[in-house]
Amino acid sequence: MSKGAEINAVDKTVVTDWLKIRADFPILQQQVHGKPLIYFDNAATTQKPRAVLEALRHYYEKDNANVHRGLHELSSRATEAYEAARGRVAEYLGAANADEIVFTRGTTESINLVAQAWGGKFLRPNDVILVTEMEHHSNLVPWQLVADRTGARLRFVPVRDDGTLALDQLSSLLTEEVKLFAFTHVSNSLGTINQVEELCRRARAVGALSLVDLAQSAGHFPVDVREMGCDFAAFSGHKMCGPTGIGVLYGRAEILDAMPPWQGGGEMIVSVTLEKSIYKKAPQRFEAGTPNIAGAIGLAAAMDYLEAIGREKISRHDAGLTAHAIEQLAEIPGVRLLGPKDPRGALAGFVMESVHPHDLTTFADRQGLALRGGHHCNQPLMKKFGLSGTTRASFYFYNTLEEVDRMIEILHQAARFFS
Question: For 311-325, what is each residue's pLDDT tens digit?
Answer without folding.
Answer: 999 999 999 999 999
